[in-house]
Amino acid sequence: MKLMSNKILCIDTTSEFCSVSLFEKNMLIDYENSLIERSHSKLLINQIDNILKNNNLHIKNIDAFAISKGPGSYTGLRIGLSSIKGFCLALEKPMIAINTLKILAKSALKFINNKSAILCPMIDARRMEVFTKIYDFKLKELSVDRALILEKDSFDKFKNDDVYFFGNGSDKYKDMVTRKNFIFIKNIFSDSRYMGKLAFDKYKLKDFENLSTFEPNYIKDFYLIKRKGKWMRS
User: Fold this and answer.
1) How many whole angstroms separate alpha carbon 215 and alpha carbon 234?
2) Among the listed residues 85, 107, 65, 76, the one whose alpha carbon sits nearest the alpha carbon of residue 14
């Protein structure tokens, strides 16, 4: 597959919010974000259309599509994946998938000036459970993705390190620990603006997904929650 202008459209639908970013290689060109919770199916295509119009582009001018692959909201993941798969299949363009926990870690780095830091993104998985993973300052993986029921000693392995916790699941752990070297960063969300370099690195390596077999990273079975008397996927 020939590399051309390296325009990559990145989308993230894994959280309550929905965002779309356009990159030229790893440079952010344009960005759309919705703060209307759980409206991905209504807003995603409009966001993509707005970015294309604002930059005088047609969807066929996009060289690759990148998706935040989870873990995260079951419904959000399915909406994002179905849309991007459709574009990739129709246009014969590659799809790049990026771990949502890594996107969170990438977004937190702007607040961390400590090269020995341990990064611990956390995504809320209901009750006292989170989806989490450990990275070093260079985003090297130090653990696998996992669903973890939080306990006070969950991260005692790193009790002598500066550990930074962030993401919408981290508040659960903040109330459990008092270590001064366990640092909590607020308002870190998975966001397509932080996918650019991660996506372009994969693009250069032609690290693309198989469209017929790819599935989001759920880690575990999706949750069912009851709303207005009906059971719905989360």
Assistant:
1) 16
2) 76
Residue 217 has pLDDT above 50, yes or no: yes
d(CA 80, CA 40): 8
Cis bond upstream, residue 94 (ω within 30): no
User: What pLDDT score does 34 carry?
Assistant: 81
Q: Are 163 and 181 contacting, i.e. CB atoms less than 8 angstroms apart?
A: yes
Decide: 224 and 232 in contact? Cβ < 8 Å: yes
Q: Which two tokens stand for residue 13?
A: 């639908």
Indicate the pTM of the whole model: 0.88
Phi-psi label, residue 134: left if phi above 0, alpha if psi -120 to 50, beta otherwise:
beta
Contacts of 56 (CB under 8 A, 6+ apart): none
Distance CA 172, CA 154 (A): 12
CA 128 to the chain's CA centroid: 21
Tell me the three state secondary structure of residue 226: strand
The predicted pLDDT at position 36 comes to 58
Q: Single out the residue of 86, 83, 80, 94 nearest to residue 217, CA to CA.
A: 80
Structure tokens, 182 = 């366990």
Pick from 184, 14, 18: which is nearest to 100 by CA?
Answer: 14
Whether residue 2 is predicted with pLDDT greater than 60 in this model: the reply is: no
Task: Give CA–CA dist 152/132, Å, rounded.
Answer: 15
